[in-house]
Amino acid sequence: MSNERTPLITSGGCGLTVASAVCGAEANATSDSGHGAPSKDPRQLNTFFGVMVPTILSMFSIILFLRTGFVVGHALLQGLLMLAVAYTIISLTILSICAISTNGAIQGGGATDMISRSLGPEFGGSIGLMFFLAKVCACGEYVLGLVEAILDVFGSDPESPVSVGVQVLPQSYWYTVLYSSIILVLCLVVCLVGAHIYSRTAFAILLLITVSLLSIFISSVVVKRQDFVIIHQFPGNQTVRYNTSYTGFNATTLRNNLGPGYTLDYSTNSVMSFATVFAVLFTSCTGIMAGANMSGELKTPSVSIPKGTIVAVLYTLIVYILLFILVGATCERTLLTEDYGFLQKINLWPPFVTIGIYCSSLSAAMCAMIGASRILHALAVDQLFGLPLAPAAITSSSGNPWVAVLYTWGLAQCVVFAGQLNAIASLVTVFYLLAYAAVDLACLALEWASAPNFRPTFQLFSWHTCLLGILSCLVMMFVINPVYSSGSIVLLLLLLLFLHYRSPTSSWGYISQALIFHQVRKYLLMLDVRKDHVKFWRPQVLLMVANPRSSCQLILFVNQLKKGGLFVLGHVQLGDLDVMPSDPIQQQYNFWLSLVDKLGVKAFVDLTLSPSVRQGTQHLLRITGLGGMKPNMLVLGFYDSCTPEDFFLQDKAFCDAAVGKGAEGEYNFGVDLPSLQAHFPPVRHVESPRWLSPEEYVGIISDAIKMNKNVCLARYFFQLEGEGRNSKVDGSERTIDVWPLNLLQPGSRDYQDVCSLFLLQMACVLNMSTKWRHARMRIFLNVETESDDQGWIADEEAFRDLLRKLRIRASIKIVPWDSVVQHRAPSGEEVRGGLSARFLAAVNSMLVEHSSQAAVRFLYLPRPPAQQSQAQQYLAQVEAVTNSLGPTLLIHGVTPVTYTDL
């Protein structure tokens, strides 16, 4: 067969292309490369330049040179503890990143691509946008740190009216914003030129930072003791002077710095705490996805991302530990907390540190801007947020998403209005922690789903590490700032709801489906049919549908009748698989499922191929459902000669006016409205041949009863209105009529047999549904008042008592039918199975007289005859009784469904 040689399915490998059409164009260009010049592959970066270098630079960022003293000065031991907690959190997240990145091909978008392809569009889009915001805030933070370092060297003294030496730059809030804007423009220019230029210069930047680090370690040995006077200007023209020293390696200095000493932060004028210091420190751990965000430029992302990220994180951890201990052993606490640029003053050649600060801050800012633009571009290409992000999908000829870069630059420009690095550190940290928790959640969901295709080559993870990573991220979020944490989670939930209701459909797969399958299988095994009890009975319906065009009203009505139970639409296609090249049923499921979506009913679909409708119905009755969820009730349309109406021509969801809607075919799993209409044949005409004979129809009823299934025959439901999902009907104008007596057996006065009680139960279930809850229910008791036996009075009291026990609210109507019963005996006219035509007409007249205004009627369906030759007589009797009644449900119940005890 042709489909047995289908190539491996991919999720689209075009990385940074604008849309699927462009993907196709690139694919064609590649395949035709033999006839022309091959297209240039945008994936050119290896592990070292594409992952290790940007990750190291992002993790060094501003913390290495500008906030190491800030952390150590407030608490050296607690600072090491913070470092351990931070690296534990990111290590757990790295295990998840490595697992996901080695489970398949990663396209452009990095972390967003990982999360969206693992958790589906709702989680991918919402977490991706949150991660984008985190990157934008981080970019602004790094720029503010760079400006702080520049002003520390070149900023003029606020107390001195005359500039001294190189200290020529005026200082104020607005000047800080101006300098930050200029640096952002510089970053913008570099990012617009392309990521490859940054990746080439990044290695040179890393060399410069490494030289600066070596100079710090050498200076701790070479430079002798120095004393400093630090002056701070606080609001209200208050000037504070601090006398402090650099002592070199000194045991007393180390001992004094070990304990906590949280004090006032001179940059924000607020008192620090463990949480605020940790928030600043954790910004050094926000670069672990810098390599993952470059996935669109990596040659082998599934190999480079795990290897490069792990090595980079280990390297930065060692550097931070050594630097923390060195600083804590050589500098007094006051120097560390009151001068963030102290490393320049204690260096053997201060420009070494200055160059390191400028390089690390500028590279981290550019890396954050590039990473954010790639994330935004991935969101735009996936079309998750529609028109607002659509321009961000535009790329240059080299694949650079320049519009996404402009978006990122504009938002980062807004961030720098915060004015101080420490002021936004908590927000950046909370955003990143939430993004890391999402990555752990993606890996946890894949692991718990136990999908066979989740088999990453990286094995050093488990669901325990994923769960621990999620919990640690959430705990630290609320430790740092409960307000920011709550706000970010609320924003995430709002984005989730927006994307859920926007209902973007993708070809990535939905982790929710895998998890649901896993849980449903487990609970189906727990649903033991041997533990069924009548008081927990609920309808589980198999509705046989020949043509949905004429059955939509009935489908909608039965959807109200299921009361949270199983609802299956069954269809039998006539044919023999032996003479067919393939199974025609498999291709039809999408059309039926699209029909279910259009109608808005909660139903499954089960189709079968059979030589006859009766055999096919037997198949479905036996095999439909699973475990304890199997149909206990069969619903059939009535077998009569009425001309069906085409529901597709009446409902707006199916009419031709809706065909031209542009977005309709984009999210419907390949079934657009014209295809749906064309798939189902036109309704049957009066002259059209029937698919089944009366004998076969009655045989289906008999088969169901033999299989202990309750049977319902539905007639005239094409006349029922107000069942659609857009209908505002609440039932207040509706009436439900119940005739619990077997009208074709006049001698019966048993209102409490299984079938009568089943009738009452189904009417009560309907009365509890959404569109029928305010409907009035009437129960009609047929009595012979003219007979000498007055037992019907006692029967009525017994029936009222039964309704009280069953908690059924209904009015009881006494209907004398002496004039009807007198026609039951044959009087020389045509007799149908012992019932005269006059009797059947009289019964029909009685029903029309009392129930003509009812919205729906429930009638007792007699048991079909055992002899096949009497099938037509049986149908004729039922048809005569229900003639011109309106929507009527004839029910024959065979299972107990009511329970009066607790």
From TrEMBL:
It comes from the Eukaryota. The chain crosses the membrane at residues 48-68, 80-106, 173-195, 202-223, 271-290, 310-329, 349-372, 384-403, 423-446, 458-477, 483-501. GO terms for biological process: cell volume homeostasis; chloride ion homeostasis; potassium ion homeostasis. GO terms for molecular function: potassium:chloride symporter activity. It is a multi-pass membrane protein. Residues 553-639 form the SLC12A transporter C-terminal domain. Residues 50-542 form the Amino acid permease/ SLC12A domain. It is found in: Cell membrane; Lysosome membrane. GO terms for cellular component: lysosomal membrane; plasma membrane. Keywords: Cell membrane, Glycoprotein, Lysosome, Membrane, Transmembrane, Transmembrane helix, Transport. It holds the Pfam family SLC12. InterPro entries: AA-permease/SLC12A_dom, SLC12_C, SLC12A_fam. Its main location: membrane. Belongs to the SLC12A transporter family. This is Solute carrier family 12 member 9.
